[in-house]
Amino acid sequence: MRILFLTPYLPYPPTKGTALRNLHLLRGAARNHQAHLLTFGRESDLQAVEVLRRELAQVEMVSPPQRSTMQRLAGIPSAWPDLASRLHSPDFRQKLMDLLETTVFDLVQVEGLEMAPYALEVRRWRGPKDIPLLLFDDHNAEYLLQRSAYRADLGDPRRWIKAAYSLVQWQKLIRYEREVCQMSDAVLAVSQADAAALLALDSRLHPKVIPNGVDTSFFGYRSMAGRRNGEPPTLVFTGTMDYRPNVDAAVWFCRQVLPLVRRQFPATRLLLVGREPSPAVRGLAGPNVEVTGPVDDVRPYLYQSDIFVAPLRMGSGTRLKILEAMSCGLPVVSTTMGLEGIGARSGQEALVADNPRDFAGSVLDLLSDQARAQELATRARLLVEHNYDWAMILPQLEEVYRGLASEMPKRRLP
Q: Are residues 8 and 134 part of one domain?
C-alpha cells in the first residue's frame, strides 16, 4: 500500500511520547509499504528531515502555525474544541490537497486528534470510490483527559478558571472525537481502557488496540545494585514539562509528597527531566530539586535514580515514560491514572498510590528495602519485554493494514 502519514510535528528526533509512537509506526509501515509523511516543522529540522528521507518514500514539511491568545479566546464560542484549531494552517491544507491530486494513496493515517481537521479534508476530497481510506490513531481519549483535568482542578478554588475551561472542552470533545471516529474507516487506540472510552462514545465503533511501546534494546536493563553508591536517594520524573498533566504532576508531587519523603530521607533528590519546562515547573527548582530542561538522552537520568515516580492526576492514553523506566530496570511508584493502559499489577510490577501519604509511603518502602525494589523492577522489565516491545507491537499494525487492504478492491469497483 501507499500510505500517507499526517503528524503534528516531525517525529525525529523522538524527544517526546507522540514523536516516539509516530516514528516507530512510520518505520513499521515502511517495512512492507510505501510510507509518506506530511508534517509540521521548522528550518532547523532540515537535518532530521534528511534522516527520515533515507527511510521513507517521501517527507514533506510545512511551517507550524502561530496562534495568539486573542485567536484562542475568539474560538471559545466555536462548537469545535480548542484542540481542533491548534494546528489550523492553510499552507498545510494546500500541501495535503496537492499531494492527493498528484499521488494515488491507498491510505491516509492521521496521528492524533489535533490533526483530525485534515482527516475531515480528506473525507471531503475523496471520490465516490472512497479512496484513500482513513485510519485515525487516537493517541489519547482526549475527552477523558479534559474530564480528569476538570476533576483535578475543581478541588482548588485557585484553579476554578482552568476547571471551567476543561469542563467546556470536555463537552466539545465528546461530540468532536465521536465524529472523527465515526467518519474514519478504522480507529486505533493505545490501550484497552482508551478503546473502551471510544466505545462509550459510539458502541458501533471497532477500535483496534495498538499499544505504545518501548525499544528494550535501547532502554537496556540495569540492576539496582550499585545505583546509589552512597549518594542520597534520587527520584526521577520525565516528560514534556509544559504539558498540563505533567506540570500538575510535578507541582503536586513537590508540594504534597516530597516533604513527607524527606521526613525520613532529608537529602532525597528529585530530577524533573524534560523539554520546555513551564514557569510553574521551573519554580520548583531548588535544593535537591533539579529541573533539567531538554536533554539529548534520558537514560543517564534513569540509570542514576532509585525510583521513577509518576504522580499523574489527569490525562489518558499510555505513558511511554513509564515503559522506558521499567525497561531500564527502575522501580515505579505511580497513581492509578499514571498506570492506565499498562498491565502492571500493584505490588507486582509497580506500586500504586493516589493520595500524598500513601504515595510517600510507597516511595519510602522502596528506598528502605532494596530487595523489594529490585524484585519489582525485574518483574516490570519482564512485563515490558513480553507485551510492550515494539518488535511485538508492529506486527499488530500490519494486521490492521491487511484488513484495510482487503476492503480496497470492493471500494474501487465502479
A: yes
**Domain match, 240 and 99 both:** no
SS3 303: helix
CA distance 130 to 127: 6
Give residue for cell 509540521.
Answer: 40
Q: Which of 3, 407, 328, 396 is nearest to 189 (CA)?
A: 396
66, 150: one domain: yes
Place of cell 468532536: 176
Q: Which of 105, 104, 108, 103 is nearest to 120 (CA)?
A: 108
Which run of H or E residues covers position 331?
none
CB 406: neighbour CB atoms within 10 A?
A: 9
On whether residue 372 sits in a domain, the answer given is: yes
Distance CA 412, CA 394 (A): 27
Per-residue pLDDT of the chain (414 residues; tens, 9 = 90+): 999 999 999 999 887 778 889 999 999 999 999 999 999 999 888 899 999 999 999 999 999 998 766 666 666 677 889 888 889 999 999 999 999 999 999 999 999 999 999 998 998 887 656 679 999 999 888 888 888 888 888 888 888 888 888 888 889 999 999 999 999 999 999 988 899 999 999 999 999 999 999 999 999 999 877 565 567 899 999 999 998 899 999 999 999 999 999 999 999 999 999 999 999 999 999 989 999 999 989 999 999 999 999 999 987 667 889 999 999 999 999 999 999 889 899 899 999 999 999 999 999 999 999 999 999 999 999 999 999 999 999 999 999 999 998 877 655 544
Whether residue 109 is found in the same domain as residue 240: no
Asked if the structure places residue 271 within a domain, the reply is yes
Q: Domain range spanning residue 315?
A: 234-387
Does the residue 363 lie in any domain? Answer: yes
Q: Please count the other Cβ atoms lying within 10 Å of the Cβ belonging to residue 95.
A: 16
Are 398 and 356 members of one domain?
no
Answer for the pair 75, 54: CB distance below 8 angstroms, yes or no: no
Quote the number of domains for the chain. Answer: 2
Spatial separation of the C-alpha atoms in residues 371 and 195, rounded to whole Å: 37
Beta bridge partners of 238: 273
H-helix or E-strand containing 100? helix 90-102
Three-state DSSP at 334 gives strand
Give the CA distances from residue 83 to residues 40, 108, 124, 169, 198, in Å, rounded to whole numbers and listed in that order.
Answer: 16, 20, 20, 9, 17
The single-letter code of the amino acid at 390 is: W
Determine, yes or no, domain membership for 131.
yes
